[in-house]
């Protein structure tokens, strides 16, 4: 593949919401062209006999069973610190009003 055009660089910059100076455009045009050419070389490697893998270290997720270490507070204990309750719930000032 050939080198990227100035318009290609400006398109990528627009997608990334970047404002580039003329010097940066020239610099990135050269750098991005090298990257695209390298990726093109990688696509020529024959990987048809290779098994796909997501990682190569042989690590596995190690999970533990969830254990309840505390039952927490009962509803009565939770509500014991306030006088403002209704049907087993805390009563608080309204957060939203009808006009919002």
Describe the structure.
By secondary structure, the protein is mostly helical. The protein has a domain of 38 residues: Orthogonal Bundle (Histone, subunit A), CATH 1.10.20. A two-stranded antiparallel sheet has the order 1-2. Helix 1 crosses helix 2. The longest helix is centred in the first third of the chain and has 22 residues.
Give descriptors for this structure.
100 residues, elongated, two-stranded antiparallel sheet, Histone, subunit A, mainly alpha, single chain, 3 helices, 37% helix
CATH architecture of one domain: Orthogonal Bundle
Measured between the Cα atoms of the first and last residue, the distance is 57 Å
Low confidence ranges: none
Taken in chain order, the helices and strands follow as HHHEE
* Tally of separate helices: 3
Topology:
Blueprint: H1 6-15, H2 22-43, H3 75-79, E1 85-86, E2 89-90
Antiparallel strand pairs: 1-2
Helix pairs in contact: 1-2
């Amino acid at each position: 593949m050939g080198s990227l055009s100035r318009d290609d660089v400006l398109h990528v910059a627009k997608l990334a919401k970047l404002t580039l100076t003329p010097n940066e455009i020239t610099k990135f045009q050269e750098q991005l062209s090298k990257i695209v050419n390298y990726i093109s070389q990688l696509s020529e490697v024959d990987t048809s006999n290779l098994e796909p893998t997501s990682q190569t270290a042989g690590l596995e997720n190690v999970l533990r069973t969830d254990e309840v270490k505390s039952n927490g507070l009962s509803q009565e204990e939770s509500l014991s610190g306030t006088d403002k309750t209704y049907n087993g719930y805390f009563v608080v000032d309204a957060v939203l009003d009808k006009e919002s």
